[in-house]
Specification:
single chain; about 130 residues; Alpha-D-Glucose-1,6-Bisphosphate, Chain A, domain 4
C-alpha cells in the first residue's frame, strides 16, 4: 500500500491480486458500496439501476444516517471515476491493470487527507471481496 500527497490531491493505493474487471464491478455498482465503504450505509441512483455511468446522479447515505446527493463528474469505463458529494469534490477511484492483478488508487482533495485511513480500509475490504 502506498500513500502520496501531490497537491491538489492526496492518495492511497493498494495492489489487489484479482482481475481488474472484478474490482471495477465493485467500484461502480452502488449496491456494493456498503460492503466495502466504511462510511456508506446505502446508495441509489436517480432513475434506478445500480451501475454508475457518466454524469450519473444519486443519493448516498452515510453510516451516521446523513443523506447526501452525488454526481459522477468523470467516468473512464474500466479505469477511473470521480464524483462530487453535496456539490463538494470527493473521492477519485482508479483501477490500473498489473501483471498479477491491479493497482487500485483512491484520491481525495488535499484538504480531506484525514479521510485517507477510511480509503485504506475500503481498499482492504475491496481486496477481500474481489478475491
Amino acid at each position: 500500500m502506498g500513500i502520496a500527497l501531490r497537491p491538489p490531491t492526496a492518495s492511497v493505493d493498494r495492489h489487489i491480486s484479482a482481475p481488474p474487471a472484478a474490482v471495477w464491478r465493485l467500484l461502480v455498482d452502488v449496491r456494493e458500496w456498503p460492503h466495502w465503504g466504511p462510511s456508506v450505509r446505502r446508495a441509489e441512483l436517480a432513475g434506478g439501476g445500480s451501475q454508475l455511468r457518466p454524469g450519473a446522479r444519486g443519493t448516498v447515505w452515510t453510516v451516521a444516517g446523513v443523506r447526501l446527493p452525488f454526481t459522477v463528474t468523470e467516468f473512464d469505463p474500466g479505469h477511473r471515476w470521480t464524483w462530487t458529494v453535496a456539490r463538494v469534490p470527493a473521492t477519485g477511484h482508479q483501477v490500473t491493470e498489473t501483471a498479477d492483478g491491479c493497482r487500485v488508487r483512491f484520491e481525495v482533495p488535499w484538504w480531506a487527507m484525514a479521510y485517507l485511513p477510511v480509503c485504506a480500509a475500503a481498499l482492504a475490504r475491496i481486496d477481500r471481496l474481489a478475491r
